[in-house]
């Protein structure tokens, strides 16, 4: 099998802050990481490669030049090759333009049986790029995959997570599958794999390489734009009541009465 994984470099959300005046993300000094759900997608691809000898795993990403560090992490985890779609023309892309670019890159890679992607990216949380990429490639897609039950010659049987359970879906190959964290636990990198990853070449493509015009990608091809980002104002500190149950109940009633709730 030939498997392609869509991955994204994202800012570590534990370190992200928002400029209170501009309302924009403060990216300076914020470390970037492999999107967590994409790590699960990569692990699913690597697991299938381990189970089916002769299979290959390619990783593709769209981003600035520094995204090659994330791609080398993917190579160190076990991916066979990596591709970076990087150009100023791709800047400012929303999910619509991003999926257009990713799909163009996948077409250039060529023949494939399965495309994996994470459920969503932690910096946007839209969960749209995977399904949109599948639509542009004319592929069936299954989102929120929590288990891969069986691989057949022409189809794949998977479990799709629901709020109160799951549903079993059989989908034709080639297809797009988006992974949730419950699907697996990403493997660790070894020193040998890390050393090997930095000896491999990462293929970098711009808009001309994937046969896209500047009007078809980036900000120019993005119908949606973020006008403002902000953090809600902090809430006041809570008050803990102590004492016996009757005493706490009386104190609570008194507080609510003061606030004219009662």
Query: What's the helical proportion of residues?
Result: 25-40%
Strand order across the biggest sheet? 11-10-9-12-8-1-6-7-13
Q: Work out the count of structural domains.
A: 1
H/I helix tally = 6
> Per CATH, what is the topology?
Rossmann fold
| Level-1 CATH class name | Alpha Beta
**By helix and strand content, what is the structural category?**
alpha/beta
Main β-sheet, in a few words?
Answer: 9 strands, mixed
What's the CATH architecture name?
3-Layer(aba) Sandwich
Beta percentage is 25-35%
CATH superfamily, called what?
HUPs
Distance between the first and last residues' Cα: 67 Å
Mean pLDDT over all positions: 90
Number of strands: 13
N-to-C SSE series? EEEEEHEHEHEHEEEEHEH
Overall morphology: globular
Contiguous runs where pLDDT drops below 50 for at least 5 residues: none
Using only C-alpha atoms, the radius of gyration works out to: 23 Å
What does this structure look like?
The chain is α/β, with parallel strands linked by helices and 262 residues long. The chain has a single domain (2-221), classed as 3-Layer(aba) Sandwich (Rossmann fold), CATH 3.40.50.620. Helices cover 27% and strands 26% of the residues. The protein contains six helices and 13 strands. It has helices at 36-51, 68-77, 95-109, 129-137, 191-197, 245-258; strands at 2-6, 9-11, 17-18, 25-26, 32-34, 56-62, 81-85, 114-118, 141-151, 155-162, 165-172, 175-179, 203-205. The strands form three sheets. It has a nine-stranded mixed sheet with strand order 11-10-9-12-8-1-6-7-13, with helices on both faces. A hairpin with a 3-residue loop joins strand 9 and strand 10. Helix 2 (68-77) packs across helix 5 and helix 3 (95-109) packs across helix 4. The longest helix is centred in the first third of the chain and has 16 residues, at 36-51. The N and C termini lie far apart (67 Å).
């Amino acid at each position: 099998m030939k498997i392609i994984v869509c991955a994204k470099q994202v800012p570590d959300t534990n370190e992200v802050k928002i400029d209170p005046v501009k309302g924009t993300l403060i990216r300076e000094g914020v470390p970037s990481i492999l999107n967590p759900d994409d790590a699960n997608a990569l692990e699913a691809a690597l697991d299938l490669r381990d189970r089916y000898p002769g299979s290959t795993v390619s990783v593709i990403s769209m981003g600035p030049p520094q995204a090659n560090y994330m791609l080398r992490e993917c190579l160190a985890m076990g991916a066979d090759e990596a591709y970076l779609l990087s150009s100023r023309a791709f800047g400012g892309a929303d999910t619509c333009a991003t999926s257009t670019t990713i799909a163009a890159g996948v077409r250039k890679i060529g023949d494939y049986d399965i495309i994996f992607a994470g459920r969503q990216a932690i910096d946007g949380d839209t969960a749209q790029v995977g399904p949109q990429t599948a639509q542009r490639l004319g592929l069936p897609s299954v989102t929120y995959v929590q288990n891969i039950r069986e691989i057949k010659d022409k189809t794949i049987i998977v479990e799709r997570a629901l709020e109160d359970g799951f549903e079993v879906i059989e989908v034709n190959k080639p297809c797009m599958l988006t992974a949730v964290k419950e699907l697996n636990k990403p493997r660790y990198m070894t020193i040998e794999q890390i050393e090997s990853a930095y000896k491999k070449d990462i293929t970098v493509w711009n808009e001309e390489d994937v046969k896209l015009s500047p009007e078809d990608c980036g900000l120019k091809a993005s119908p949606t734009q973020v006008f403002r980002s902000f953090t809600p104002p902090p809430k006041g500190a809570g008050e803990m009541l102590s004492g016996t149950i009757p005493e706490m109940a009386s104190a609570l009633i008194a507080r609510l009465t003061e606030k004219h709730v009662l």
